[in-house]
Amino acid sequence: MLTYQLKKAPGVPLYEALYRNIRADILGGVLVPGQKLPSKRALAANLEVSKITVEAAYEQLVAEGYIC
């Protein structure tokens, strides 16, 4: 399960912080091509954020071609 320390920062929504962490893991080779990401619900529960936060982060990753 992916675990990140998401902290509220001025001007940075939580979904963007999550997106940046996942993108960094993809670019750094921690997450490899073909590896499945956790479900939105499971990741939201693990990180104690809303499912909408995870959904927005995943949508941004899709929009930029990091995941499909």
Q: Could you characterize what this model shows?
A:
The two termini are 19 Å apart. It is built from 3 helices and no strands. The mean pLDDT is 94. The protein has helices at residues 14-27, 40-47, 51-63. Helix 1 packs across helix 3. Helices cover 51% and strands 0% of the residues. It is an all-alpha fold and 68 residues long.
Task: Give the N-terminus to C-terminus distance in angstroms.
Answer: 19 Å
Mass-distribution shape: globular
Cα gyration radius (Å): 11 Å
Helicity, as a percent range: 40-55%
Report the portion of residues in β strands: under 5%
**Biggest β-sheet: count, sense, barrel?**
none
Summarize this entry quickly.
With 68 residues, this protein is mainly alpha-helical. The protein is built from three helices and no strands. Helix content is 51%, strand content 0%.
List the helices and strands and how they pair.
Elements: H1 14-27, H2 40-47, H3 51-63
Helix pairs in contact: 1-3, 2-3
Give a quick set of tags describing it.
51% helix; single chain; 68 residues; globular; mainly alpha
